[in-house]
Specification:
With 265 residues, the chain is mostly helical. It is 74% helix and 2% strand. It is built from 8 helices and 2 strands, in the order ααβααβαααα. The protein has a two-stranded antiparallel sheet. The protein starts with a helix and ends with a helix. The model has no long low-confidence stretch (mean pLDDT 82).
């Protein structure tokens, strides 16, 4: 719990540095933010390695909170690396704070869902693709929220203190569609690998996940085709992206939340 607490503090400290810096003319102290979040991410990696990679003979603990914490780590690392090139400063406090809360919850509510992934390399491929697809599309949902906020601010007459920190509208929109494209490709590969490597994707314990994932995949595919063929953008794309993210979240964590949290409680 000591490492968990320190990791949580560093994630929240990074968020505080960025948020308070947004109200200054020079902006956030990027060096301080990078240093603190690097410590948080390093500690988070140690927590995940000890929490997921248990004894090889026993298996790997892929509990809901462990998986959510792993996804949060992937998103945090991705957003940190992207911050050197892409406009995502406004999103960073949200990502780091949420990841910090996941680390804390995982430490306070220990649970187990042990799987033997090491003896099933095909399953490892499927899970890896699914995790990266979800992380990419979750970031796309965050960019959709940012795009909606920028649209809202541009319609207001009086610029707020945060207005100077807003990235260009078109830049955010271009990143959103690139994330949707990459995420949809990864989701496609994840679904294909699932149908290839798993015994029955429509079995009782898998059916809801498969159906919701297919619905999300169809929605993302329609968005991309509509943008490519008809130039779709704006509110329909923003809300469709957010709805797709909600569908994937329900697919990945919905039933596991019921089984591992509600039923156990």
């Amino acid at each position: 719990m000591l490492i968990v607490s320190i990791c949580f503090i560093f994630y929240m400290l990074t968020s505080g540095i960025i948020v308070t810096g947004m109200f200054r003319e020079k902006g956030p102290n990027k060096l301080a933010a990078i240093m603190t979040v690097s410590v948080a991410i390093g500690l988070h990696m140690l927590i995940l390695s000890s929490g997921i990679l248990i004894e090889p003979e026993t298996g790997q603990n892929m509990s809901m909170l462990n998986v959510a914490s792993l996804v949060g780590w992937l998103i945090s690392v991705t957003m940190l690396l992207a911050s050197f090139r892409l406009p995502n400063t406004i999103l960073l406090p949200v990502v780091y704070s949420f990841t910090g809360l996941l680390v804390l919850l995982n430490g306070l509510i220990p649970n187990a869902h042990v799987m033997q992934i090491s003896v099933k390399p095909n399953l490892l491929i499927h899970i890896g693709l699914a995790l990266f697809a979800y992380a990419c599309l979750a970031i796309a949902s965050l960019y959709a929220v940012q795009l909606s906020y920028i649209n809202l601010r541009l319609k207001e007459k009086n610029a707020s203190l945060l207005h100077s920190s807003l990235p260009p509208l078109m830049a955010v929109e271009n990143i959103l569609f690139k994330l949707l494209l990459v995420g949809t490709v990864l989701l496609t590969l994840s679904l294909v690998s699932g149908f290839m490597f798993l015994d029955n994707m429509f079995a009782t314990e898998q059916a809801h996940k498969t159906v919701l994932s297919l619905l999300a995949w169809g929605l993302y595919s329609v968005i991309l085709m509509g943008h490519s063929m008809f130039g779709w953008r704006g509110k329909p794309v923003i809300w469709s992206t957010i709805v797709g993210g909600i569908l994937l979240t329900l697919a990945y964590f919905g039933s596991r939340f019921v089984r591992e949290v509600i039923l156990n409680a």
